[in-house]
Amino acid sequence: MYNLRAALEKAKVRVGLVGTGYAAKFRAEALLNDERMREANALASQVVAVVGHTKEKTQAFAQEYEIEALSSWQQLVERSDIDLVVISTVNRDHGAIARAALTNGKHVIVEYPLSLNVVEAEELIGLAKAQQKLLHVEHLELLGGLHQALKQNLAKIGEVFYVRYSTINSQNPAPRKWTFNHQLFGFPLIGALSRIHRLTDLFGKVSTVNCHQRYWETESEYYQSCLCTSQLCFTNGLLAQVIYGKGETIWQSERKFEVHGEKGGLIFDGDTGFLIQPGETTPIEVAPRRGLFVKDTIMVLDHLFNGTPLYVTPEESLYTLKVADAAQKAAQTGLTIFMKDT
After folding, report:
1. CA-CA distance, 192 to 187, in Å (whole number)?
2. How confident is residue 312, by pLDDT bands cut at 50, 70 and 90?
3. Sheet of 15-18, strand order
4. CB 297 within 8 A of CB 30
């Protein structure tokens, strides 16, 4: 995608952060604690500046990590003393910030989704290649214990024919925050892209998509609840059901992943997993989800300093975005969407 040799020759990665939430905090700590970053940047700080949603949060974050507070992300991406921009802010702004950062010759880490718009996401991948810069779309779900346990045990259950993946978060009262805002979060399965990406990583290409969704809201911008159900038919014949819901009218939380094969099943309920086969049920160890932002950050640094391959490509994230976009079209039209037509 980019000239790795040139990147390694510079051996300097000075970072600007967009966002001040928990993801940005984990990123900052991972960067500040990395020995290679300290050695490469010598006397200069490896984390240069930050910009957040509000002036107060930005200043508090900058003071905690002893970096510079800026007033806008536009100002940050234009800085000549920043080599890598880490985007950990509202979904709506991902595409615009990534485009500006790449245009200004920066490497980019962005939390999924790369963009809320498929066409823009495609353009950004092309821009990164033209600029010979790293564009890494974070997908922590692939690094977590659940996904790794799935991969390790999938062959034991034979040909998989049905998957049900449900993540429901009961919140009463619902918070009035950006994750409950139509414009800032996006369509539920785009904003929560990992729910589909986990499936495309395991099972490949999708042929058709159906979807239904509903909001409960008392104002036009923010909602109190949403429920989204989608059916994906994969080209290998697998049928998958993805359920995503959150808010006040959801009365019990659930995080469950069921995989049914011809020789057995894998059932993950929260952090508990079981392999079910004729006559026996075997517990599956699921590693905790702690430390995944740090792990992702270290992998990016390994890639920039040593050329180590990353665990996911922007093209793979883009394909999942296309599937989620098809789900949005299906929900809007009530029609089955054929992926070959998207």
Report:
1. 8
2. very high
3. 68-69, 47-51, 15-18, 84-87, 107-111, 135-138
4. yes
**Token pair belonging to 233:** 């038919």
> Tokens 């058709």 identify what position?
208
Omega before residue 314 within 30° of 0, cis: no
What SS3 class is residue 135? Answer: strand
Distances, alpha carbon 251 to alpha carbons 247, 270, 284, in Å:
9, 17, 28
How far apart (Å, rounded) are the C-alpha atoms in residues 147 and 153? 10
Size (the chain), residues: 342
Check residue 141 and report its DSSP letter: G
Structure tokens at 305: 């300093």
DSSP string, 315-331: HHHHHHHHHHHHHHHHH
More confident residue, 281 or 33: 281
pTM over 0.70: yes
Query: Letter for the amino acid at 319?
Result: Y
Q: pLDDT tens digits, residue range 252-311?
A: 999 999 999 999 999 999 989 999 999 999 999 999 888 899 999 999 999 998 899 999
Amino acid 204 reads G
